[in-house]
Design brief:
Blueprint (H helix, E strand, L loop, with lengths): L1 H5 L10 H14 L10 H8 L3 H13 L3 E4 L3 E4 L5 H4 L7 H7 L4 E10 L3 H7 L7 E10 L2 E11 L16 H8 L6 E10 L15 E10 L5 E9 L13
Antiparallel strand pairs: 1-2, 3-4, 4-5, 5-8, 6-7, 7-8
Length: 247
């Protein structure tokens, strides 16, 4: 069992190890690189080059989130409800990745500018209207159709290079790891049902009177300081978000 799984999950070297181990195991589960049962703690520790204590803590976190079940004499099993749509908001992955997991051919288009957030953005997220920001506009096309539209705003002062003039990746997480002084550690997303009233409501090609999902995302660093905000409009024809609740 160990030999067949070892090639399917990469080794990790950097801290924080517990979170990296949890992420690596979760990605392997979502990608169906494991069957219904996970390898032993010892095997996972060997795969990821970490201690069994780190693996045990990572598995406890996944169990608390309802992703796996651990029973003595049976081992660790993946819960039947687990699928990408259920875990979409629990993972810091780009929206292009979520669309690909659904089987779509994806293109991402990104434009950006330096300026001040527009009035609607300032009001929605309670931003400083005079703060110089990097503003992005992203379009995620699934099979040639606009599926997700995203606008981001982050303080220009958080960029490593004050003279930044480069391409912006589609994933804000990749961007923060590469170019920000402080990268994103976690995200809080507010989910809103919205109905398209006119062409200014959203860029999504949904009919007037049709509903879509809007996420208001707040991106924080490890200390809990706000780094950036995003307004994400999602065509539910392509992605439905699900929430797992546990007693």
């Amino acid at each position: 069992m160990a030999a067949s799984n070892q090639a399917t999950i990469g080794r990790i070297e950097n801290v924080p190890l517990t979170e990296q181990a949890r992420t690596a195991i979760l990605e392997a589960i979502v990608d169906k690189r494991f069957d219904e049962r996970l390898p032993s703690e010892e095997t996972l520790a060997e795969m990821l080059n970490v201690s069994r204590t780190t693996i045990r803590t990572a598995l406890q976190s996944l169990e608390q989130e309802g992703i796996i079940t651990r029973k003595r004499a049976i081992g660790t099993t993946v819960n039947a409800h687990v699928r990408p749509s259920t875990l979409a908001l629990q993972r810091m992955v780009g929206f292009d990745g979520l669309l690909r997991e659904k089987g779509h051919e994806v293109e991402a288009e990104v434009t950006w500018t330096r300026g001040n957030p527009e009035a609607g953005f300032v009001e929605t997220f309670s931003l400083d209207p005079g703060q110089a920001s990097l503003l992005t506009d992203k379009s995620y096309l699934a099979d040639g159709k606009l599926a997700i539209s995203v606008r981001d705003a982050m303080p220009w002062a958080n960029l490593k290079d004050p003279d930044f003039d480069s391409d912006v990746p589609a994933s804000i997480f990749e961007f923060s790891s590469r170019d920000w002084i402080t990268p994103v550690d976690h995200v809080v997303a507010e989910i809103l049902p919205v109905v398209k009233r006119n062409k200014d409501t959203t860029r999504l090609p949904v009919d007037r009177g049709e509903a879509f999902t809007r996420l208001l995302e707040y991106h924080y660093d490890r200390r809990g300081d706000l780094l950036a905000v995003s307004m994400v409009d999602v065509d539910t024809e392509f992605i439905h978000f699900e929430v797992f609740r546990r007693r």
